[in-house]
Structure formats: C-alpha cells, structure tokens
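From the methods appendix. Each design record in this collection lists the tokenized structure first, followed by the designed amino acid sequence. Records were kept in a plain field format so they could be parsed without special tools. The example shown here is representative of the layout used throughout.

RECORD:
FOLD TOKENS (424 positions):
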C-alpha cells in the first residue's frame, strides 16, 4: 500500500505541474533567445499544425506564445530554439500586462501559415538572395515562381510574394558597364531574350513590364509583396515608365524615346515620386532613388552606417509594429545595388519603418496599394556589408540572432495575423 500511495502522490505532483504548464514562450529579446531566426521557423511550423500563436508585440523583443504541447517542445529542442514553459497563471499575467492601456504592447493572434512564393529565375545566379537563404535556414517552405508562372496568374495561389534581386526595366541590372564581357552576363542576357520570345514578347523590357503589371495587380487584389535591393526601385520605375522606351540600344536593339524623363508617370509607382532616371548605360544605377554613392564617396562612413527602427503604437498601428519587431532598434547598415531610398523621393503616404538620419534616407518602408500591402527593404545581405557579384553566400549559422534578417521574417509572418481594423 505504501508503494501504491507513493506512486499516486508522484502522479498527482506530475499532473498538477502538467496542468499548470499551459503555454510555451519563445522569448525574442537579446539575452533570452539563442536562435532568433529559427524561432520564426518554429512559429510558422506551429501554424501549419493548426496551433494558434500569439505574437506579443513589444514584449521581450516581440516574443511568441504557443500552446504547450510535447511536439512543440521537441521541435524547439531539435532546432536549438530557446523556450520557456509558463503556467496558466504566468501566461495570463503577461497577457494582462500587455493589454494595459499604459503599455505600448499588443497581442496579435496568428492563425494560418501564409503560402509563400519567391520570384526568382531558374538556375544558379552570380549572387545569392537573403530571403531564400533565411527561409531555408528557418525551415520555412516556399515555392519558386518566375515570369511564366506570374503571367499565367499563378500568384493567386499565394499569400506572400518576395521579389528576388531583379531588374524589371529590361536593362539587365545595369551591369553593362562592368560586366558586359562576363560569360554569366552574356548567358543571362541570352536566356532572358529567349524567355521573352517564348512568352510572346519582342523585347525583354516589354515582358518584364507585363510581369510588373501582374505583380501590381496581385497586390491591389489583396496580396502581400516584399522586395529587396534592386527589385524595389526597378519595379517602381518599370510601372512609372509604362508605355515609354527607356532602354538604350545595347539593351533592346533600338533607341530610347527622346526626352523620356518628361513622360514618366509617378502616379503609377508604389513608393517613389519625382525621381530622375540614370540615362547612361555605363552607370551602375537606375535613378537617383538609391543612395549607394553616399557610401562610396564617404558621406556615410562605414562606422556610422546604421539605421534605426521607428516606434509605432502597438495597439493603434499593429502592422508597422509587427514589421519592426526586434531585439534592438539600431541595426547595422549594408550595401546593395539599391542600398537605401532618398527620403525626398518617397511618397507621403508611405511609412518609413527604418531610417538613417545622417542623410535623410529610408532603408525600410511600407505601404498599401488597393487591398494589399508592400514592403521595400534596401540592401543585399544584412550580414555582409558590401556583398559583391560572385562572393560566397552568408552562413547563417554564424548569425542566428541577426536583427537585419529578423526584419525579413517579420514580413513573412505578418500575413498570418488575424485581421483587425487599423486605426490610422
């Protein structure tokens, strides 16, 4: 009987601990999490398993609160993600603290894992892509799409679209000046021309414009679009130059339209206004939107190249707050073909999520178009300051807590949020 009683006591102790441990917290502050990037992967994985997840905005760096389940704990252990087991009372205390009107915090419910598409060309490129690298590292699944899929309306199958390092203007990335004799450039130009012809277009610029229009329509219809580096300004330039030939003969075989700058329609662009196009094919730049040259001429020296995330009201503006969740507000800058956006050329209805005050530029911006939303993020690789063509890809095992990469993953998760009317 004594042995039986002891077993019953042990069972009751274990049972009482189990019922009190009702939640798993993935802390996202600087000290509390050993792998911030994979924590997003755990959250996405939990959504695929039909668990509801609470995103605790501005609480310990934007932590995630999940139901307590053996498979969630096991998955965290396998992936090396720090987690804390909370009793029901502890979880409720945190939620009460967050709900207090005096706290700039909010609880957002994530309900369904978004279907992710990455617009990227087939085959190996002479540069890598930060988004596909971090999605792979975080173990978040995605589908690659390119021009044929976009033009056949397959974007309708996806909730979130990333635009890979891309040139939507048909000028082959403005690589002509430095790389026109490089085998990879010659081959990519040939492949682009063959693809455009197979899709029924005489010019690559015409085919890329058609793709940009489809992506525009996807956003207007309610899609979420994220772009980095040259996919940001080249996308807007292509839309603004709709119907105007801005390509020189080495790009499309005929002359550009005379005085084409006067025909640019800024109403068509998502984020930028009043920009001046770079006409020379020898200059590695699309327009004056980009501020890369401010690094080259040392207006912004390396040691001062940081950008700060903006503060938003979590309760009144949860979307920009979600997009800015991080364990630090000051993030090291990094270059790209399009490094950052000149502040004077950003439309007034576009939110600046991250800014560098030294020269009034924005690094990270967000806006709405129709029923959908877009986010533009300047630079190429958040953990490689001056990534060059042909450089090896970043090893994210060396940067599991990267704040610059966290901004990408914020964008991946926010379409999963339960829709709440935005107050402003």
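DESIGN:
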């Amino acid at each position: 009987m004594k042995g039986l009683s002891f077993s019953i006591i042990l069972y009751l102790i274990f049972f009482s601990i189990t019922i009190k441990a009702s939640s798993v917290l993935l802390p996202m502050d600087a000290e509390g999490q050993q792998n911030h990037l994979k924590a997003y992967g755990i959250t996405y994985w939990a959504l695929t398993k039909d668990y509801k997840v609470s995103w605790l905005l501005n609480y310990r760096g934007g932590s995630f609160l999940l139901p307590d389940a053996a498979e969630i704990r096991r998955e965290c252990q396998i992936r090396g993600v720090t987690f804390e087991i909370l009793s029901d009372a502890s979880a409720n205390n945190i939620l009460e603290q967050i709900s207090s009107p005096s706290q700039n915090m909010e609880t957002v419910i994530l309900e369904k894992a978004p279907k992710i598409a990455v617009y990227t060309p087939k085959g190996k490129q002479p540069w890598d892509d930060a988004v596909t690298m971090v999605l792979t590292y975080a173990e978040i699944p995605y589908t690659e799409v390119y021009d044929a899929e976009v033009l056949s309306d397959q974007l309708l199958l996806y909730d979130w679209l990333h635009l890979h390092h891309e040139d939507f203007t048909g000028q082959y990335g403005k690589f002509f000046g430095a790389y026109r004799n490089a085998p990879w450039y010659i081959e990519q130009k040939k492949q682009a021309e063959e693809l455009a012809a197979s899709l029924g277009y005489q010019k690559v610029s015409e085919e890329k414009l058609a793709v940009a229009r489809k992506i525009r329509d996807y956003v207007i219809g309610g899609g979420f679009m994220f772009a980095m580096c040259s996919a940001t300004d080249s996308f807007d330039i292509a839309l603004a130059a709709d119907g105007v030939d801005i390509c020189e003969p080495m790009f499309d075989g005929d002359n550009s339209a005379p005085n084409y700058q006067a025909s640019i329609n800024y109403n068509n662009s998502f984020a930028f206004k009043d920009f001046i196009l770079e006409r020379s094919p020898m200059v590695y730049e699309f327009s004056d939107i980009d501020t890369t040259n401010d690094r080259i001429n040392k207006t912004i020296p390396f040691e001062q190249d940081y950008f700060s995330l903006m503060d938003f009201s979590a309760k009144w503006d949860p979307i920009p707050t979600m997009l800015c969740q991080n364990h630090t507000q000051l993030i090291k800058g990094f270059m790209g073909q399009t490094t950052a956006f000149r502040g004077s050329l950003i439309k007034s209805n576009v939110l600046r999520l991250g800014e560098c005050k030294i020269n009034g530029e924005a690094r990270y911006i967000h806006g709405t178009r129709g029923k959908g939303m877009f986010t533009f993020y300047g630079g190429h690789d958040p953990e490689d300051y001056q990534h060059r063509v042909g450089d090896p890809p970043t090893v994210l095992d060396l940067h599991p807590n990267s704040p610059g990469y966290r901004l990408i993953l914020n964008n991946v998760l926010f379409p999963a949020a339960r829709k709440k009317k935005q107050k402003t």
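APPENDIX NOTE: The longest helix spans residues 2-20.
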